[in-house]
Here is the input.
Amino acid sequence: MKGNDVRTAVGLSVRPYRVDANTGLDPRTTTMPTSGPLVDAYGRVHSDLRISVTDRCNLRCVYCMPEEGMTFLNRAELLSFEEITRVASVARDLGVTSVRLTGGEPLVRRGLVDLVAMISALGFDDIALTTNGIRLAESAEQLKAAGLTRVNISCDSLRPERFASIRRRGELSKVLGAMDAAEAVGLTPLKINVVLLRGDNDDEIVDFAEFARTTGRVVRFIEFMPLDAQGDWERERLVPGREVFATINERWPLQALEGPSHVAPAERYRFADGAGEIGLISSVSEPFCGTCNRLRLTAEGSVRNCLFSDDEMSVRDVLRRGEGDDGVAGLLRRAVWAKFPGHAINEVGFLAPRRSMSMIGG
Ligand code: SAM
Ligand code: SF4
Here is the structure.
């Protein structure tokens, strides 16, 4: 079966195969393998599974959700912990080595510690959690004991009033407390996610670099992506990673660290004087699709091979039809195989995906 026939056969929209201008990827294989690792038609092996456990959140960050009016999944629509664990188990058998739990805000899902223990029992190399930190301090110790390896905490300003205006709810002091709590129980290395918005917090680049230097926490600057639920994204509001690099490098020279780590899309840099590390996640200005190894499971059980693609396949249907692990594995293989070479965000005619970050799982 060839290129487009494969897409048609797996029920996904058809785009012609070609060498991708952004990634340089060229499809080398034309037949989906039925054994071996999870590979796409461009040879990218997938070893990282992002699991969204809820689309709900206790904050309303301006770049993610509107202040009012979000509608959320009801409980019956969510995958149960047993269902999530089954998918994770099949994914592990197909070569997935790292899992990241996300949402929405994963810590608003009741019993998350139990889920971490269930996934941890499967034996992954790395189980991380991305959180806004508001509720982390109360469960950091149990999460660590259940097998969580590390956490990423989102924090877009080091100034209390500004934090409140970007995240709309919650307090900076809670998030800083969460960072201390995570470190106290060994949920490290601790990574801090900062979404930069032009005119809102781009004057804090140096402050955050200093924070990385004094705390040893890895600060990762993320470009604003067209994944906000309200559809307000504008390219002018995005602060390119190159600009962040130049701003910090001028003050404290930076040195590139060898390649992105196996679980992070960030370009990594250390301060030349050895004082710490920063990362740049330049998803829009410098897409890293060519090395993407990520696969996503949404809270209601859809498998998604790219943040920016609308194509999804329901593993919940497979599970609730009573199919065995072979059915789940087949769906994961088809979803990965169908991945496009790149998200085409910088091409004319790009359309933002219908579902936003908190619905997909960022
Ligand atoms: N609620 C958790 C949190 O905020 O860390 C986890 C889910 S959140 C969707 C995951 C990450 O996506 C966060 O670091 C958040 O800042 C980021 N994010 C959300 N919307 C974004 C957007 N439109 N562009 C870039 N990053 C975004
Ligand atoms: Fe909630 Fe995270 Fe989205 Fe902020 S970025 S609204 S904390 S899901």
Observations:
- The chain has one domain: 3-360.
